Structure formats: structure tokens, C-alpha cells
């Protein structure tokens, strides 16, 4: 889109310097990968994404966030938001994490159930 919101047909480009945007960049179709990760989430399992630089880890996480929002509350937390002091012991880390989690969930999720709202209140009181 241009500055006033008109759709501009641009040719896609190869992107090698950051997050890929499907409408702007050539990308592999990773719908199957997202389905497999969602299956793990549905089963309550953990997963990791570990690859070399420029492999698409951040792009995958951003796409996964959108993919999971249909069925889950999704909160993105960047651990770069933490200072080194917040990793010194478990208690400090847990309190810092809970505080950031509450701020992020309030900022990102507008349609909050009563159960989640009460959980957020309890976490806030504990912090």
C-alpha cells in the first residue's frame, strides 16, 4: 500500500536481511510446518526452533503467532527486554517474567475471558 492506503502492485523480491513478508517477498510455503507445530502445542508439548542465521526463525514465529491466534491466547515476549540482573536468580527472574507477561497480555489481547482476567489479577497481586 502507498502512504494513503491504495494498493500498489509491486513485484516480489528476495529478502536476505530480515523478517519476510509474504506479500512482499518470495518465501517457501511453510503451512505444513505451522500445522505440525500447532499439533505439538495442542498436545501440550514443547518445541524448539534452532537453525543458522537467516533461516527464517523469526519469520516462522511471527507466522505461528498469527496461526495460533485462532485457537489460543498468544503473548510474545522478547527476552532481550530482560536485563542481566533479572537472570541472577530464579525468584527475580520469575517476578520479572510475570510482570512482563502481564503487561504484554494486557497490551496484546483485547478479548479476555473472565478466567484469564482473574488469573492476570492474581499474577499482578503476586508481583
Low-confidence stretches: none
On the 0 to 100 scale, the average pLDDT is 86
Helical region count? 4
Task: Estimate what percentage of residues fall within beta strands.
Answer: under 5%
Which sheet architecture does the biggest sheet show? Answer: none
Note the overall shape: globular
User: How many beta-strand elements?
Assistant: 0
Overall structural class, as computed from helix and strand content, comes to mainly alpha
| Helix/strand order, N-terminal first | HHHH
* Tally of distinct domains: 2
The portion of residues assigned to helices is: 40-55%
Q: What would you report as the Rg, rounded to the nearest angstrom?
A: 18 Å
Distance between the termini: 43 Å
Write the layout of secondary structure elements.
Layout lengths: L30 H12 L14 H12 L21 H19 L5 H13 L1
Explain the overall architecture.
Helices cover 44% and strands 0% of the residues. With 127 residues, the chain is an all-alpha fold. The protein has 2 domains: 1-72, no CATH class; 73-127. The chain is globular and about 50 Å long.
Structure described in brief:
The chain is mainly α and 127 residues long. The protein contains 4 helices and no strands.
Structure keywords:
globular; 127 residues; mainly alpha
Amino acid at each position: 500500500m502507498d502512504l494513503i492506503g491504495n494498493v500498489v502492485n509491486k513485484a516480489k523480491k528476495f529478502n536476505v536481511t530480515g523478517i519476510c513478508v509474504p506479500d512482499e517477498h518470495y518465501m517457501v510455503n511453510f503451512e505444513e510446518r505451522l500445522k505440525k507445530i500447532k499439533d505439538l502445542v495442542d498436545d501440550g508439548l514443547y518445541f524448539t526452533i534452532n537453525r543458522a542465521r537467516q533461516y527464517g526463525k523469526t519469520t516462522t514465529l511471527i507466522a505461528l503467532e498469527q496461526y495460533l491466534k485462532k485457537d489460543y491466547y498468544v503473548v510474545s515476549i522478547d527476552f532481550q527486554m530482560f536485563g542481566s540482573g533479572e537472570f541472577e536468580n530464579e525468584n527475580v527472574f520469575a517476578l520479572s517474567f510475570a510482570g512482563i507477561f502481564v503487561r504484554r497480555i494486557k497490551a496484546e489481547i483485547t478479548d479476555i475471558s473472565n478466567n484469564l482476567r482473574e488469573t492476570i489479577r492474581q499474577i499482578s497481586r503476586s508481583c
